[in-house]
Amino acid sequence: MEEIRVSPDYNWFRSTVPLKRIIVDDDDSKVWSLYDAGPKNIRCPIIFLPPVSGTAEVFFQQVLALSGWGYRVISLQYPVYWDLLEFCDGFRKLLDHLQLDKVHLFGASLGGFLAQKFAEVTHKSPRVHSLILCNSFSDTSIFNQTWTANSFWLMPAFMLKKIVLGNFAKGPVDPKMADAIDFMVDRLESLNQSELASRLTLNCQNSYVEPHKIKDVAVTIMDVFDQSALSHEAKEEMYKLYPNARRAHLKTGGNFPYLCRSAEVNLYIQIHLRQFHGTRYAAISPEMVSAEELEVQKTNLSNNTTSLLFSDEVFTGVRAGQPVTHMRFTSSKLQPSNDPINSSWTKSSPALHLFLSRNYHNGD
C-alpha cells in the first residue's frame, strides 16, 4: 500500500510550495503556518482550514490542482487559541497582514465550524465571500463534551490523541481511504499537547452558528454517504441551517475525502468558485478564464441569476475500478442536461471537460 507521505505528488508539493510562518499577535508564540500558491495579485483567494487532527499539508492535493488551474490557494495551520473570538481576531489580523479583501473559505470539520464563526463575527464588515463546508457542523453540542471542554488543557498528549483517534473510521476500508487515515494519523502525531488541547477546546466549548448573520454568504455543503464522524442528525441540521446552500455529495470518502477522493472534491470546489468568475471576488487569474465563460457570467450577473446549481441527484461512474460520485450540471434557465460532458458550460473549462470525458458514466 503506497503511503501518501512518500508519494510523488506529496514530495512535489513539499519541494515546490514553500511553508511560510507568520506572527500577527503580540504573543510571539502564536505562529500561523501556511502554504500560498497561485497568482499573488488575487486578493480573494480560497483558504483551507484543517480539522482537529490536520495540518496545512492535508490539503496538498487541492493546493496543487487548484493553483495549476490558475486559482490562488492558501492552506493554513492555526496557532494555539483557546477561545473562538480570540481565533477570529487572530484570523482577521492574518488577512490584514496578507492584504486580502474578502475570501472564500473551505473548512473541514472543526475548520468548517471556525469558518462559519469567522463569517458570523465579521458580518458587519464582511471578510468572507463564500463557504465550502466539508463534513462540518454548526453546533458543538453534538459531541456531548461541552462539560469537558475546559479540562482539555490539563490532559496529556497521548490522552488527547486517543480522543481524536476515536472518531477515525474503524473496520475495512478501501486502500485510498486507508492511506488517508494513515496520513492523518501521521499529521496528528506532529501536533503537540497545547495544539491538540486548544483545538479540542474550540471544537467542544459551548457554541453554535447564528445563520441570520451570514445569510448573504454563498454556501456549499460537502459531505459523504459512508461512515464519518458526523451523525446523520448533524448533517440534517446543516441542511436546515442553510436551506439555500448547494449540496455536494460524495458516495464514499469517510472523514477525509479531500485526501482519498481528491479529484471529485477538487471538481466540486472549482464548480463552487466558477460562480464568482468575472467579478472582483474571483479567486482565479483572469487570464485563465475563457472569453465565452466571462460572457456567460456577465449575463448571469446582469440578470441576477445563478449560473450553476448542484442537483440533488447523484450519479455513479467508474474510475480505476472504484465507484465515484458525480453531479449533474443545471442552468437556472435550462432543464437538467443528461450530457454534462458536451455542455457549453463544461467545454468552457478544459480541465472540467477533460475530467468528465475520462470519468463520467450515467448510472444504470
TrEMBL record:
Query: Is Nucleotide-binding set as a keyword in this record?
Result: no
Which molecular function term from Gene Ontology is one that the record holds? Answer: CD4 receptor binding
What keywords appear on the UniProt entry?
A: Cytoplasm
**Which InterPro entries does this entry report, sorted A to Z?**
AB_hydrolase_1, AB_hydrolase_fold, Maspardin
What domain of life does the native source organism fall in?
Eukaryota
- Which subcellular locations apply to this protein? Cytoplasm
Q: Provide one Gene Ontology cellular component.
A: cytosol
Where's the AB hydrolase-1 domain?
86-163
A GO biological process of this protein is:
cell surface receptor signaling pathway
Regarding protein family, the annotation reads: Belongs to the AB hydrolase superfamily.
Name by which UniProt lists this protein:
Maspardin
